[in-house]
Each structure stands twice: as C-alpha cells, then as structure tokens.
Specification:
The chain is an alpha+beta fold. The protein is 43% helix and 22% strand. It has 4 helices and 5 strands. It has helices spanning 3-31, 39-66, 120-125, 153-158; strands at 83-88, 93-100, 113-116, 133-138, 141-151. A 5-stranded mixed sheet has the order 3-2-1-5-4. Strand 1 and strand 2 (93-100) form a beta hairpin. Helix 1 runs antiparallel to helix 2. The longest helix has 29 residues, at 3-31. The chain is elongated and about 65 Å long. The protein starts with a helix and ends with a helix.
Length: 160
C-alpha cells in the first residue's frame, strides 16, 4: 500500500469516527444525564477535537500529495519520495533516509529516517545517484555520505 493510499484510508477512518462513532458515544453520554459532571462526555468531546485536528492535518498532507507531478520526479536520482541507503564516512555507519516534503511527513518508521527536501541532508542528497558522495555542512564540521542504494518514488510505487 502506498503512502497516499494509507493516508486516504486513515482519512476515511477518521471521517467515520467523527460522523458515526463519536456521535453515537455522545448520544449514549447524554442518556446518562448531567453532562457537566459526566467525565465520559468530556473525554468524548476532547477526542472529537483531537480527531478533527488530525483529520485536517491528513487532508492537508493528501492535498500536498495530489499536487505532486510524478512525471517531474527523476527515475534514477534522489528526488522527492526516494528512499536512500547511505554510508556515513565519518562514523562508518549505514543509514537509510526517505526524502519527503514537510507537508507530507508521516509517522515515524523503523525502516528509515524521514528528511525533508529543504533540510541540509536532503539538499545535499538531492539529484545524486548511487555511488555519488554528498557532503553536508554541520555546525561542528561536516558529514559525508556515500549513496549505496536508491529507491525512487517510481520504484516504490512499482513495488521494486
């Protein structure tokens, strides 16, 4: 399932919760009597507020996704949506990054670290290919990454 499909599925779930589940729970709480002293009602109202905020955030992310023209994203260099495996030359460690727009940043993943296109690491890796080296300026010096593997957004959507 693609990020966009997961996003659409989560939006549908939250819309259902706001339009069906929470109203049913509110109705049940109303039946219990005095709403001022009903902690269950208070919890439901708070959950409705958080769910509404989360739904709006996800709709903004989906809107940002829909504005992306995949034809403009490279098929063989680091671009938006790419998952990049790099070797950090200074620390001699391997890291995996996913290049995202800030508006589309998703939940944390154990598989990779999300970096934005505008971050120092994102800017340094952008448009690079497997085998290329990217130098990232840091306040304490620099970080140098060698690109070991690259999955572009096209590869990910095709399941490769």
């Amino acid at each position: 399932m693609t990020d966009r499909e997961q996003l659409e599925q989560e939006i549908d779930r939250l819309k259902y919760e706001l339009s069906v589940t929470i109203p049913q729970e509110i109705q049940s709480a109303v039946v219990m009597g005095d709403l001022k002293e009903n902690s269950e009602f208070s919890e439901i109202v708070t959950r409705r507020q958080f769910t509404s905020i989360r739904l709006n955030q996800l709709i903004q992310r989906l809107t940002a996704y829909k504005q992306i023209n995949l034809n403009l994203i490279s098929r063989d260099t680091v671009g938006m949506g790419s998952i990049i495996t790099v070797y950090h030359l200074e620390s001699e460690t391997t890291q995996v990054f996913k290049l995202v727009l800030a508006e589309i940043s998703s939940e944390e993943s154990p598989l990779y670290i999300e970096i934005t296109v505008k971050s120092p690491v994102g800017k340094s890796l952008y448009n690079k290919s497997v085998g290329d080296t990217a130098m990232v300026p840091l306040p304490s010096g620099k970080a140098t990454y060698k690109i070991l593997n690259l999955l572009t957004i096209h590869d990910i959507q095709n399941g490769t």
